[in-house]
């Protein structure tokens, strides 16, 4: 008996099954080898992507920094830099610079000389300097960025100084300026806003379309706030302490979004109503803690008829007399049933905003 047949008989495995088993084993091995090769290829590909984003120069020592020279994008997030001269390292090692983000560092002062050195950075379009504990802007920091369009200096501790009011004069093509929680100094607020407005005037930002001043503890908006920006379309004043909004009506005729949500509009004052009626339809966002009682009929009647308030049908009574109308939509609450039996304006009225101040402060201090 041939040996091959003897082996098949001894294990009681039919010859056909034995051939199928060998074939399956060979196919499985081949598939495993191919998959292993693919996994190795993917690993090499991932390594290539990581290597591509490694920065040159001094920034190469920081994992928080990523550089993509092909796209002209450079960022250092939470790298804890304390010296603003690190921007020079980008200009030294890269010629094409389009977008730069330095967020979550510890710059107290911007440099008194241009951030990127003496060479013009005509390709730089976006600069994000948010959350860096910046106090002093320095008038020359933005020099040599003639085509900058987007500037974000939010979440800082900026103190405006008379010698720095020309800070924005070097960036005439700005279209978006973000200053959320940018200045938290509570003393000399009037002087600070006067200096900010003077900075806006001197900048001559004729192309600015978006100005974000939310989360800045603002109690009163400068009357000429929108006047330096003829192309302004969006003014964001969310989460401040405004109880009224009186500005130069001529300067907001072309503005189509003014966000006044989460301020202290318990009612809508008559002078604001007169201003709003001259604005474009659906210009104002007014999500606030409105009070509805027998003294609220005038503003409720106006709110129902005006076309200037966006999403007005979703606004509700945060407090009401009688209490049964708390949470009711202002557009639907029956005016004839509103009373003045419940005290709405009490010492507790400021409680939500006191909580907001504490929470905002803790977030700002990174608690």
From TrEMBL:
Gene Ontology CC:
membrane
Pfam families under this entry?
LRR_8 (PF13855)
Query: What positions does the domain LRRCT occupy?
Result: 288-341
Keywords of the record, alphabetical order, are: Leucine-rich repeat, Repeat, Signal
Keyword set includes Kinase: no
Q: Does the keyword Disulfide bond apply?
A: no
Q: Which organism is it from?
A: Caenorhabditis tropicalis
Question: Which PROSITE patterns does this UniProt record tie to the protein?
Answer: LRR
Please give the superkingdom of this protein's source. Answer: Eukaryota
What is the protein's given name? LRRCT domain-containing protein
